[in-house]
Amino acid sequence: MNLDDPEARMRSGLLRAVCVPLVILYSADPRSSQGAQTSEQEYRAAQQGDAQAVSRYRLAADAGKAGAMRNLGLMYAQGRGVPRNDAQAVSWYRKAAAAGDTGGMINLGLMYAQGRGVPRDDARAVSWFRKAADAGAPGGMTNLGLMYAQGLGVPRDDAQAVSWYRKAAHAGAAGGMANLGLMYAQGRGVPRDDAQAVSWYRKAADARDAGAMTNVGFMYAQGRGVPRDDALAVDWFRKAAHAGDAGAMRDLGLMYKNGQGVPRDDGQAVSWFRKAAAAGDVGGMTNLGLMYERGRGVPRDDAQAVSWYRKAAGAGGAGGMTNLGVMYAQGRGAPRDDAQAVSWYRKAAGAGASLAMRNLGLMYEEGRGVPRDDGQAANWYRKAADAGDAGGMTNLGLMYAQGRGAPRDDGQAVSWYRKAAGAGEAVGMRDLGLMYAQGRGVPRDDARAVDWFRKAAAAGDAGAMRDLGAMYENGRGVPQDDAQAVSWYRRAAVAGDVGGMTNLGFMYANGKGVRKDDGQAVSWYRKAADAGARLAMRNLGAMYALGRGVPRDEAQAAGWLRKAADAGDPVAPELLSRLAR
Predict the structure, then answer these.
(1) 475-495 burial code (b ≥16 CB/10 A, e <16)
(2) Could you say which of 310, 343, 376 is where a domain stops?
(3) 249, 282, 310 - which closes a domain
(4) Residue 48: pLDDT band by 50, 70, 90 thresholds?
(5) Is 412 domain-assigned?
(6) What is the C-alpha separation between 153 and 141, in angstroms, rounded?
(7) Domain count, the chain
(8) Which of 104, 167, 367, 511 lies at 20 to 30 Å from 353 by C-alpha?
(9) Whole-prediction pTM value?
(10) pLDDT of 21 over the 60 cut
(11) What residue numbers bound the domain in which 580 lies?
């Protein structure tokens, strides 16, 4: 088990889940019909100069115009034409609300929801949103639905959320349409129905809701409710990005990075990630960090990667926290600091990041930054697994298989490996194959073992390629075939598996499946030995002792045998003893 490499970490930054955060609480626009008392002349004045607009709003407010009171509150809330003053904004919103202006009610609720100018009070926010909704304001309906959906100020009630979103949607509110689509996409308060989700997203998009445009793009990218069409997904992401949606900018960057719907273009990906980051999107910051870490579209720069991960983490991005922890754990772009790595993993885990939970388990398993504690390791792997992390499932299975942090239980190990394999995790597939090959937790079944090794190998697992080679070499679950064994060992070796390198060297040394070639055997043993494989060290020592593939050299033989012994090889000490005689 290893800390995830950057490729694994990139999965956390792929196209975001369909839940563009439930549409933000709506404030009233100065031109809103909810403020019809505000004249077009006053609005033009706002365009000509904020200070002049404030003066005009104040005169109109003093004359009892509720819309002007609300707009004067907006100017204070935004610091336009007057110093920003949330308390003054609240005061004017309250006056507007008291005069029956639904925009004032909505904005007063918003101030309570955000704790601006008043102590945060979700119940009071709900009260004001309800008053606006009951008065027929679509924005109040949308915000009231949001409070029910999130359980803020009222018990969480998805059915009530759907009801209010539907009312808002029928009243023409794009936010209500978008959020109603979200509820259908998630199956919350209504049966899951992707076609309905797309329909509502499209209606909201037609009403120029940028977040809904992004979600239409997502549905095309995933083939949910519509046939999958990456080109159309890109079109929708581009529309949403040009309309200012930061998430769409990030998703457009991902399409360029992955070459989906557009030719792969790392420069364009970086450009869009940068725009998303500048607009405050934490996913954009995280992905920009990854591009610097990988040197894709920009020169590789770990310090820049750390900087962007830190910005994402500071903005609450769990992916940024996780990746920042990895950089500290690996000493890349920052001094290696296991305690800092653990700290960031813990923060990310607290924010629900399953990968951080798994990495935190690994730190406990290896005693890095925390005292070694298999029980804690198993606990964090379980949390990661329960959160859907396939790597956590595999690691938890291994703890059961080894009886570490949990009672040894091969049945449980098989169960977790199977779950990981079902989630597409290559290591889980390979480990499940090993259980079949060894008859642990399941009846021994070499054919099934081969099947799982083959699936894992197809998913890129180098260890499975080596294991598949061993099954061919030994004729287990497949007809014995040394040429096939060599082929799989070579694939494993090229993929960096030291066992594959060692086994390929053995096949050359013994002329199995290939013409005997001691020079090739030595070459592969050396590669594996340099990578730390103790069996390869022992075999390389033996080749020097026998003068096979290299000139006979007892000093070199002793050196490699000693390295193998120091690495724990059980046979190397006896060979050293024989060499000394």
Answers:
(1) eebbeebbebbbbbbbbbbeb
(2) 310
(3) 310
(4) low
(5) no
(6) 15
(7) 2
(8) 367
(9) 0.82
(10) no
(11) 497-581
